[in-house]
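dumping this here so i dont lose it
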């Protein structure tokens, strides 16, 4: 049913999206207007892939959450669809928060999301209630279930929070639906809860696969659990994490646990833990299983700690990462841009073992929508201490990437990228060098950069704010380095849409 609130959002976004926006990134999903945060309902449906997102179309700021909607066949070309959900019912009147989607056995598109309701109590305090709600649709229009909320307080373990109960990730195995949601127990400790259902309307509580540890913050938002390469992976986004070495930064972070999930006992046993992404802007990742069997991840390429500052002249705020294929290498989660991007490459340019020491730019290596691979190895003079790439550079602005083989780290620094506020702009994280050699792949798409190290052992994503004509790239090192470069411009027209 299309309510007035949904209709209003649909009319507004349609009008806003009519004007061509050359400012939009080429490959990264945005709302087209307004604000977006978490990816929601990232899942295959009827031969295509749908992606919803937390959305407030009217302002460049978070507001009562709607679900925006796009779809794609190739993870490159995305079509805007009308907003799918608006906060228009009593049980979700303060927001349709994050959730999942799945194609039902009968062909309907099921959405499961968190309905948020705030009430003022007699004593003036505010009571917030979060419940899980279902909507059924055809890929464009969705009907909220009259039975909503379908997972409410009565299905929580005794004493658990009704205020922090959100972000159900949904999947289907045969005729059974599963939903994994974030919650807090009676002592305030975060837990992820698993639910099961035969019809997506009647659910039962199946267990608590995992609970927060102190380091991983008091609450795990947006959980995801899936099999990968013979093991299981549990992802979550942590509120208020503690910093830990160079692996985890404080605040909103993302964590990947690799281990085994035992469905019988509903327990996850952890074997290894790592950050999902080491950049400045990454939160709330969600994955799908593609029709050809790839586990693909997408995330909000922003972070609550630095997200409230729209760049001047941009009419949108928030974008998704480029979708990434996941695999395990031993216990390590590796990420790599989906292979479909390779069909968008044009103007190839490569150089072999160029000697780099004093800062130089290389003819043919520049641009702002790029796929750039670098292989760095020490020259005859021995190991370098730091090798730096400056990109998105003009006379005054630049963003830097520096390799420190002795420390075994990589540092990204966007202090001089034009960001309007003094929030965190630097991150340094562990990477491996083989006798000083390292491989870096950099995806640049106007307002963002994503780095993949050594075939995807680490990924780091960040936004940047230098004007689009800041296109230069410079290399420098304290000792001679032999640099091999493979550069492609990226153009969506290279692919038939
Ligand atoms: C994570 C989150 C979710 C919530 C949504 C609200 O970024 O806080 O827990 O559902 O954003 O927009």
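and the seq i came up w/
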């Amino acid at each position: 049913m299309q309510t007035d609130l949904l209709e209003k959002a649909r009319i507004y976004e349609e009008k806003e999206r009519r004007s061509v926006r050359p400012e939009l990134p080429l490959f990264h999903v945005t709302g087209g207007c307004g604000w977006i945060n978490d990816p929601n309902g990232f899942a295959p449906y009827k031969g295509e892939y749908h992606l919803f997102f937390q959305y407030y179309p009217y302002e460049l700021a978070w507001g009562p959450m709607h679900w925006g909607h796009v779809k794609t066949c190739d993870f490159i070309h995305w079509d805007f669809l009308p907003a799918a959900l608006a906060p228009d019912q009593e049980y979700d009147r303060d927001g349709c928060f994050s959730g999942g989607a799945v194609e039902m056995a009968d062909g309907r598109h099921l959405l499961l999301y968190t309905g948020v309701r705030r009430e003022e109590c007699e004593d003036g305090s505010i009571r917030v209630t979060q419940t899980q709600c279902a909507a059924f649709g055809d890929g464009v229009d969705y009907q909220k279930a009259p039975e909503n909320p379908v997972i409410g307080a009565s299905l929580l373990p005794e004493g658990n929070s009704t205020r922090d109960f959100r972000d159900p990730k949904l999947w289907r195995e045969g005729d059974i639906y599963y939903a994994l949601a974030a919650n807090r127990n009676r002592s305030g400790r975060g837990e992820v809860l698993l639910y099961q259902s035969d019809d997506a309307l009647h659910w039962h509580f199946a267990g608590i696969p995992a609970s927060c540890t102190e380091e991983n913050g008091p609450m795990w938002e947006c959980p995801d659990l899936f099999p990968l390469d013979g093991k299981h992976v549990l992802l979550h986004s942590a509120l208020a994490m503690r910093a830990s070495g160079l692996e985890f930064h404080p605040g909103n972070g993302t964590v990947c646990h690799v281990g085994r999930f035992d469905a019988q006992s509903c327990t996850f046993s952890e074997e290894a833990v790592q950050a999902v992404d080491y950049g400045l802007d990454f939160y709330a990742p969600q994955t799908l299983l593609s029709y050809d069997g790839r586990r693909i991840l997408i995330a909000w390429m922003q972070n609550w700690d630095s997200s409230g500052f729209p760049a001047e002249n941009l009419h949108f705020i928030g974008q998704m990462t480029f979708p990434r294929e996941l695999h395990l290498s031993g216990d390590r989660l590796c990420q790599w841009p989906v292979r479909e991007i390779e069909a968008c490459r044009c103007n190839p340019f490569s150089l072999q073992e160029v000697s780099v020491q004093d800062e130089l730019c290389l003819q043919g290596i520049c641009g702002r929508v790029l796929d750039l691979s670098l292989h760095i190895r020490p020259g005859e003079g021995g190991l370098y201490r730091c090798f730096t790439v400056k990109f998105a550079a003009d006379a005054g602005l630049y963003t830097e990437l520096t390799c420190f083989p002795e420390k075994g780290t990589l540092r990204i620094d966007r202090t001089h990228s034009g960001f309007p506020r003094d929030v965190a702009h630097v991150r340094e994280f562990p990477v491996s060098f083989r006798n000083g050699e390292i491989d870096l792949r950099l995806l640049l798409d106007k307002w963002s950069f994503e780095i993949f190290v050594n075939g995807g052992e680490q990924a780091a994503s960040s936004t940047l704010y230098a004007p689009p004509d800041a296109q230069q790239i410079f290399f420098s090192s304290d000792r001679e380095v032999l640099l091999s470069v493979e550069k492609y411009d990226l153009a969506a027209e290279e692919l038939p849409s």
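The mean pLDDT is 95.
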